[in-house]
Specification:
Layout lengths: L3 E9 L16 H12 L8 E2 L8 E11 L5 H11 L4 E8 L12 E9 L14 E2 L6 H9 L3 E4 L16 E12 L2 E8 L6 H13 L7 H5 L17 E7 L10
Parallel strand pairs: 3-10, 5-6
Antiparallel strand pairs: 1-3, 1-4, 2-3, 5-9, 5-10, 7-8, 8-9
Helix pairs in contact: 3-4
Subunit structure: Homodimer.
Catalytic activity: uridine(38/39/40) in tRNA = pseudouridine(38/39/40) in tRNA
Keywords: Isomerase, tRNA processing
Length: 259
């Protein structure tokens, strides 16, 4: 029988990984997951395909990981076995049997990220500094909201991506469904969801908006950069450790009906 497609909703602390994608000489999330899948499949290579490639230091609360396993591996059984063998900084939060046409990357309709910023002194606490950008400075609230509002809708994001990382014919257009700065105890979280994201895109956006909110750049910077052809005038990207992939959305029809 054909291998069964299973979606593993995966969480990880990215602090000790060189990113998601498998690499020969460094530790990655994909590499660790595929080693466990190899043990469970009796030594066969089982690819773990992610919905997206998170950078070194970036975390995930809901990375979509697709695998194809023999029929004896139900989604609940695979989740239990994976969690028994994975290292303590990776955890499969949920597992779902999917329809044969499911693809973890191309089937996704939206991805949601969150970026944490700490503006109080306690942001340097060892319990916070691994997962948020400790700025220790107040931010202009109106500036944050105004710049984020410019992101909504469909735009070309060449100014907010690493040059030459997308295919030559890529249009660099993304549809932003939601973009908002939400207050939290001790700081802010930038929440953003879109149909797709480019390499470093969220971190470039956060770095630029923070510069505006600190008075380093004028209001309207985001709107101006959205119509520029490159990233030459974009602020440096925000640190990776404040970013987390929160959720990947798939059509309901791709979730198989068990029984």
């Amino acid at each position: 029988m054909d291998p069964r497609p299973i979606l593993l909703v995966t969480q990880y602390d990215g602090g000790r990984f060189a990113g998601w994608q498998r690499q020969p000489d460094v530790r990655t999330v994909q590499g660790d997951m595929e080693r466990v899948l190899g043990r469970l499949s009796g030594g066969l290579y089982v690819p773990a395909v992610g919905a997206g490639r998170t950078d070194a230091g970036v975390h995930a609360h809901g990375q979509g990981v697709g695998v194809r396993m023999p029929p004896q591996w139900t989604a609940p059984r695979l989740r239990r076995a994976m969690n028994a063998l994975l290292p303590d900084d990776i955890w499969v939060a949920a597992a779902y049997q999917m329809e044969p046409e499911f693809h973890p990357r191309y089937s996704a309709t939206a991805r949601r990220y969150g970026y944490l910023i700490g503006t109080d002194e306690l942001a340097s606490s060892p319990f916070r500094r691994r997962h948020e950008w400790a700025l220790h400075r107040p931010l202009d609230v109106e500036a944050l909201h105004g710049e984020a509002a410019e992101l909504l809708g469909e735009h070309t994001f060449r100014a907010f991506a690493i040059a030459h990382t997308a295919p030559v014919d890529d249009h660099h257009r993304c549809i932003i469904h939601h973009a908002a700065w939400v207050p939290r105890e001790g700081g802010w979280v930038f929440e953003v969801s879109a149909n797709r994201f480019l390499h470093h895109m969220v971190r470039f956006l956060v770095g630029t908006m923070v510069d505006v909110a600190l008075g380093r750049r004028p209001r309207g910077t985001i709107a101006r950069l959205l119509v520029t052809p490159d990233n030459a005038d974009t602020s440096p990207p925000a640190p990776a450790h404040g970013l987390s992939l929160r959720e990947v959305t798939y059509p309901a029809a791709l979730y198989a009906q068990e029984g």
